[in-house]
Design brief:
Helix content is about 20%, strand content about 30%. It has eight helices and 18 strands. The strands form four sheets. The protein has a seven-stranded mixed beta sheet with strand order 1-2-5-6-7-10-11. It has a seven-stranded mixed beta sheet with strand order 12-13-14-15-16-17-18. β17 and β18 form a beta hairpin. The protein is globular and about 55 Å long. The two termini are about 15 Å apart.
Amino acid sequence: MEIVKNLKLGDFELFFLRDGSFWLDGGGYFGIVPKVIWQKLLYVDELNRVKLNINPMLVKTGKHNVLIDPGMGNKYSDKLKKVFRMEYQPSIEQSLAEIGMNPDDIDIVVATHLHFDHVGACTRYDSSGKVVPTFRNAIHYTQKGEWENAIHPNERTKGTYFLENYVPLMEAGLVKIVEGNVEIVPGVSVEVTGGHTEHHQIIFAKSEEEIAVYFGGIVSAVTHLKIPYTMGFDLYPVEVMEKRKELYQRAIEGKWLVCLEHDPKNRAGYFEFDGKNYQFNKKVG
């Protein structure tokens, strides 16, 4: 089975990876959108869950191997695995192996935010059952505010922030805290958007005037392209809507290749506007 898709972006090469999938409560995923509307968009299982793929992205710049949102990983309790109907095939390790790489080849990891389905794969169990870094040669970048919120989750966020996914990275000296919009390595930068979490960021890859943007939780799938289709998991849904309006316009004007975190059928493509609605023109499925 072919797991990985890839394409050129100027002098860079983008690889669209996989790290399994999970099933999320449909009401949580679509927020205030009634089920009578959203059930037409996705298959719903007997427990009212919809399937979400996990689509990490690798940027090979020629000097760095930058992995964005590695995925969910496989460290969870039997109860949590059942609740989210977690499926671990293919894994991030299998994705990398398909292109002749392994976790030790990654030297930069960038997270849009620290929810378990985005960074759980950053750590793993070793043979003794200890939680250790998966990408042991990589510096992991995150926003200062995101880190602080993840280290001290509140009653609402503790169901998505799990310390074992990132604290071992700090203990190993593999975390780099940044503040605001910064360049991580030449051609790869982050921009704070807020919305999904207070300090959520999107990641840009730019080479030879071509731009790809990993949207993370701002728009995770084509089913959420409409401005008001926010998630129940968005901490600041009004900010998400306002940020979408801004980013959609910039994406169209700048011809951004937009990369989608959770879409089962669309990994990357271009935004278009027909005068009434925004559309997604798939480039990578």
